[in-house]
Design brief:
This protein is an alpha/beta fold. The chain has two domains: about 120 residues, Response regulator (Rossmann fold), CATH 3.40.50; about 100 residues, Arc Repressor Mutant, subunit A (Orthogonal Bundle). Helix content is about 45%, strand content about 25%. It contains eight helices and twelve strands. The strands form three sheets. The chain has a five-stranded parallel sheet with strand order 2-1-3-4-5, with helices on both faces. Helix 2 runs parallel beside helix 3 and helix 4 runs parallel beside helix 8. The longest helix has 24 residues.
């Protein structure tokens, strides 16, 4: 497997490459966001380790640009001091996981290996044409294993964070789930922070699921509290 490291601090980038290669993977370094985008487009990578604070094009812009190009390579985002606003902004941009600096090397490798395993499982499901863990709603099929939503001939690729939120809402069908609970249980954020990112995710899920996203019947708002998933409409 091949990993792209997008990190402008040379000593950090070199250290990550050394340890990634010690795990048996290939690794390449890009020193800024523009170079990272160019390398991601030119090469076939199994994961991207992406720093937020980059000169020129920052990590958020890199992640968003890759997703806009239908590139769903797993992204592990490195955030400054683990600020909740960075984490949420990263998830909105399309990151699959995050790790605050400074980080423990073993934790970094565990997170990276976790993303690579999920990618490999997804590839195996696709290659063997097996039916993964799916859920049917409103004539659409949510495929959790392959991070897809299928409706007729259309296939929508979902990010890991979209899948996590959707699965959580489905698992709590009929229950009102607060924004604070979503922050803590879905994204592992314990601090009080701006929850508008959750609202933005909900808007996207409604576009995927609802016949009329502006009049939602599946993912409903419970005013002043949070959201409720309704399985039958």
């Amino acid at each position: 497997m091949k990993i792209l490291i997008v990190e402008d601090e040379a000593h950090i980038a070199d250290g990550l490459r050394f340890n990634i290669e010690a795990e048996g993977y290939e690794a390449e370094i890009a020193a800024d966001g523009e170079a990272g985008l160019a390398r991601a487009e030119a090469g076939s990578f199994d994961a991207v380790v992406l720093d937020v604070m980059l000169p020129g094009v920052d990590g958020f812009e890199v992640a968003a640009a890759l997703r806009a190009k239908q590139d769903y390579t797993p992204i592990l985002m490195l955030t400054a001091r683990g600020r909740p606003e960075d984490v949420l902004k990263g998830f909105e941009a399309g990151a699959d996981d995050y790790l605050p600096k400074p980080f423990d090397l073993e934790i970094f490798l565990a997170r990276l290996n976790g993303l690579l395993r999920r990618r490999e499982w997804s590839r195996r499901e696709t290659t063997t044409d097996r039916v993964g863990d799916t859920f049917e709603i409103n004539g659409k099929t949510i495929d959790f294993a392959n991070l897809e939503l299928r409706s007729g001939d259309e296939t929508i690729h979902l990010t890991m964070m979209e899948i996590k939120l959707l699965r959580y809402l489905i698992e709590h069908e009929g229950q009102t789930v607060s924004r604070k609970t979503i922050l803590e249980d879905v994204w592992g954020l314990q601090e009080d922070t701006d929850t508008r990112a959750i609202d933005n995710f909900i808007v996207r899920l409604r576009k995927y699921l609802e016949d009329k996203p502006n009049d939602p019947q599946i993912v409903r708002t419970v005013r002043g509290v949070g959201y409720k998933f309704v399985g039958k409409i």
